[in-house]
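Design a sequence for this backbone.
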């Protein structure tokens, strides 16, 4: 978060306080934010509460308290404190988005795996019906990814109640998706439409989204840059104009935020799917990640004569991280992640 970002954040807090009736003032056009002075608290400070106190008819400390309440849970702020007659002091978080991307790339396709179910022993009875076999296989992988001791084909093991689904032989990706995307107790999907490469085909969208990340990495190398986690761009600002009448790529958080949120939630999605014996939850999570990635991908590469920037490297790293999550999730379901479609 830059000082400019912080200034906009403070102004949004003022606007929220005005909108909900906590303050009766005109929202200023800007909020001055400065580096904290030696001996001060935090990294940055703002005197906006002092300037709003008289028009609000309240003390600066009251105004500062109202704004502090609306700044407590803002992403990027680690702490907001009030000092002196009503100064707001800010301590920034590290770049949490970049840390998330670094963590995913470091973990690889094991991102989201953990030990929450360590010590849990799950034994499934042998299954003969085609769909039940695939569901049990996926559940064993899913449970093991969360630290459980899981095994299929055990005498006296747990029997799943699975709505049957006919299979014509080899379990293709389409058959696996058809059997696993629906909840085990629901009728499975028809595999036929899943063989058609179309945007209405959810399996195609997931696999295509993964393949796009591989292509973006190739294209970026051709343009002379590689992925590097970092800042994705100035929040809420339009892209630079690279040609007359042609805007640059939209900036974070408008396109990146949904993708970042889903990647952050992915470990919980895997754990929830394991606990509830619901591989369909993994499939739905992958669909959501794929759709968010496909909406974001257009911001990754430079447009026209635009030169690759640090923001482009960061966006490329985010796209690579999303592809890593897709590949890992597909692997849990026993489905391929092709580099090219």
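Sequence:
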């Amino acid at each position: 978060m830059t000082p400019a970002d912080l200034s906009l954040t403070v102004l949004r807090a003022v606007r929220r306080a005005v909108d909900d009736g906590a303050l009766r003032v005109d929202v200023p056009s800007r909020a001055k934010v400065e580096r904290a002075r030696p001996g001060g608290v935090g990294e940055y400070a703002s005197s906006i509460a002092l300037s709003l106190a008289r028009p609000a008819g309240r003390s600066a400390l009251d105004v500062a308290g109202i704004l502090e309440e609306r700044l407590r849970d803002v992403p990027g702020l680690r702490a907001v404190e009030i000092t002196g007659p009503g100064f707001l002091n800010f301590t920034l978080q590290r770049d949490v988005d970049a840390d998330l991307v670094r963590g995913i790339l470091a973990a690889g396709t094991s991102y989201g795996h953990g030990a929450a179910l360590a010590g849990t022993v799950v034994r499934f009875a042998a299954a003969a019906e085609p769909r039940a076999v695939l569901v049990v296989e996926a559940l064993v992988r899913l449970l093991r990814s969360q630290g459980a001791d899981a095994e299929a084909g055990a005498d006296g093991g747990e029997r799943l109640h699975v709505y049957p689904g006919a299979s014509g032989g080899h379990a293709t990706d389409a058959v696996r998706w058809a059997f696993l995307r629906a909840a085990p107790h629901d009728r499975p999907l028809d595999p036929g439409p899943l063989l058609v490469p179309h945007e209405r085909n959810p399996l195609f969208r997931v696999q295509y989204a993964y393949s796009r990340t591989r292509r973006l990495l190739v294209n970026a190398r051709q343009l002379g840059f590689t992925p590097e986690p970092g800042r994705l761009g100035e929040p809420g600002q339009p892209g630079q104009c690279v040609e007359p009448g042609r805007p640059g790529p939209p900036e974070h958080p408008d396109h990146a935020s949904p993708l970042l949120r889903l990647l952050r939630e992915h470990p919980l999605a895997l754990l929830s799917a394991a606990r509830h014996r619901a591989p369909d939850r993994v499939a739905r999570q992958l669909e959501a990640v794929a759709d968010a990635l496909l909406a974001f991908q257009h911001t990754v590469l430079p447009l026209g004569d635009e030169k690759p920037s640090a923001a482009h490297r960061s966006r490329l790293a985010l796209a690579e991280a999303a592809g890593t999550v897709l590949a890992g999730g597909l692997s849990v379901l026993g489905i391929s992640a092709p580099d090219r479609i």
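The two ends are 38 Å apart (CA to CA).
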